Amino acid sequence: MSRIALLPEEVASQVAAGEVVERPASVVKELVENSLDAGATRIEVLIRRGGNSFIRVVDNGCGMDRDDALLCLERHATSKIRTGADLMAIHTLGFRGEALPSIASVSRFRLTTREHGALAGTEVIVSGGKMEAVRDCGEPEGTQIEARSLFYNLPARRKFLRTENTEASHVEHVLQLQAIGHPHVGFTLLNDDRLVHQLPPGQTLRERLRDLFSTALVGELLDVPEMEIAGVRVTGLLGRAGVSRSTRQQQIIFLNGRPIENPTISHALREGYHTALMKGQHPVTFLSIEMDPAAVDVNVHPAKREVRFRDPSLVREVIVEVTRRVVESDRASWSRTFAAPARPQPVQDNTLPLIPPTEQFALRRDWSHFSAPAEAPAAAPVRDASETLPLSQTNAAQPLPAEAAPSLPFVPSATAPAPQARPAQDFKFIGVLGRLYILMENAGGLVLVDQHAAHERILFEEMRRRMEGQGVPTQRLLLPITLQVAPRDAGWLSENLDALARTGIGLEPFGAGTFKIDALPQFLSATEPSQLLRDIIDELRDTSQQTSKLRLGEDMIAKTVCRHAVKANDILREPECLRLVQDLIACELPYCCPHGRPTMIQLSYLELEKKFGRKA
Fold first, then answer.
1. CB-based contacts of 441: which residues, under 8 Å, 6+ apart?
2. Are 39 and 93 in contact (CB under 8 A)?
3. Dmax of the chain from CA atoms?
4. Which residue, 276, 222, 343, is CA-closest to 594?
5. Which range has the worst mean pLDDT, 194-198, 539-543, 606-610?
6. Is residue 146 within a helix (H) or strand (E), and if so which, with residue range?
7. In this predicted model, what pLDDT tens digit does every residue of 47-79 receive, in sequence order?
8. Fold of 9-200
9. Which of 484, 488, 539 is nearest to 507 (CA)?
10. Which tens digits make up the pLDDT trace of 330-384?
11. What is the pTM (predicted TM-score) of this model?
12. What is the enclosing helix (H) or strand (E) of 554?
């Protein structure tokens, strides 16, 4: 007796529906995508009880005649593709022909539609996959679909639905995604006849985000100028340095108009922000990527949220480059935020010894001081404040001889590339709060600088430049260590032996799947070199080809400069504070320390006046 039998059509439809229709939000997503593919400029969504009892989607798209209205309820019936070759050139959001029959098989379904210019429309009623009625109707042009009692014939699936509020929030999230991806389309969302969103058509992305979220969030976003690199075009908005979230909830990416989730793009964004983002945080992004549909496979999962790129490394390089350019482009506006009229000349005061900034912030040439700070030098002679260099003249300070250098660890090398010259910024020095925060006044209000974070950034960039120019000094291990890795990891290590050598890590093959570690950077204190190498393997996977492999050692640099930078409770005098600020502004990424914390913040006069009740 045969044990294999064909499933009844009704059961097969319910099985297929399990892949497409997971919850009410899945129904809304599929119906809204169909509306967008139909050319709708206005879409209205109404749900009741979180979508469990009622969902209605109305659009003003092209509509359908009776034949199409009946045919669209058949499995794998679609107007989007005709042949297998069309799967390589998908320009629409839907194409599988599964959504409508799947929804109709698990709900009490009603479809009304009328083509533009047609005298009458068509109404189709389906209950649990069984067609009950087909008749003419007088509905407006476009399409209206209702799904009542979702999963009424699948009680086991219905038990897995969450509370009404939870399901309603998922529906709202789905509609927000489509509204962000198509700001030219008007969207309306009603929950239990209560208006949630009413978004007019023809908006810009900024206007759409302002309506959906808040003006404060939009003010923290940077425009991505339209860039096209190797056939990949990127537009949208990126959060400023320091604007981040603990989850990827606001990391929204569209590919050819379709919202997607892709680890390649997530890693590229993280790499593009680099030290401008704290570890464990995710950037706020609203990016739209346009590329040849033949270069991406969207037919991975029925939900169509996952995609595969034919050349993921190219996409990664483009996203990294675009993100890096946008984050660095904010530097000019960041500097303007802290611009101020010329600072008055300091009042001469001979009661306190002032250490010239050329001595206080001179950095050592001797790399041996990376492993341990040098002893503090003798106190500098007392100098008159008038002898100190003005802030605008300290940019070209000459380093002291090694024997005269103070305890701070690094000195700009004569051969290392100097940072690009920046216009000097002048501030009125007020004082130091809590022996940590430098207080200054500019035209905008009060400026606070974290002296430790600022000095970390300065030392970090200087040491990184020296590493790139001169390499990293290494120390040989007395007893080499062997490391056994998986075959894939062995391939990664073999391809990047030169990059590891430039970060000061001596590694060579030592048999099948085994490597020998015989050298480490001098300034690195690694109790478990094997674990260090395993961490580096993971970083190698997340590093793009154009990115300097010396980034693999930047965590080590960040830890080193953290130990050597000015600490809280270290007393800095006015010339030292001003030199610190000027050197910070000359950095490539002055917004934050190597760990992603902000270095300088501004409290505007308006904020202060609000706190004191002078303005509402």
1. 340, 427, 428, 430, 447
2. no
3. 107
4. 276
5. 539-543
6. strand 142-148
7. 999 999 999 999 999 999 999 999 999 988 888
8. Heat Shock Protein 90 (3.30.565)
9. 484
10. 876 776 666 544 444 444 444 333 334 444 444 333 333 333 343 444 433 333 3
11. 0.72
12. helix 554-564
- Rounded Cα gap, residues 8 and 577, in angstroms: 79
CB 329 within 8 A of CB 316: no
Helix ranges, 284-367 (H): 312-337, 357-360
Q: Looking at residue 296, what DSSP letter applies?
A: E
Q: Nearest 5°: CA angle at 370, between 518 and 389?
A: 155
Options 1.10.10.10, 3.30.565.10, 3.30.230.10, 3.30.1370.100; CATH of 483-561: 3.30.1370.100
For residue 296, give every residue at least 6 positions away whose Cβ sits within 8 Å of its Cβ, in sequence order, or none.
255, 256, 307, 308, 309, 310
Please say whether the beta carbons of 436 and 565 come within 8 A: no
Contacts with 383 (C-beta within 8 Å, 6 or more apart), sequence order: 353, 354, 355, 356
What distance in Å separates the CA atoms of residue 497 and residue 510, rounded to the nearest whole number? Answer: 13
Architecture of domain 220-337: 2-Layer Sandwich (3.30)
Distance of CA 259 to CAs 19, 517, 582, Å?
18, 44, 43
* Residue 127 host element (H or E): strand 121-127
Residue at 476: amino acid letter: R
Report helix angle 164-181 to 24-37, nearest 10: 20
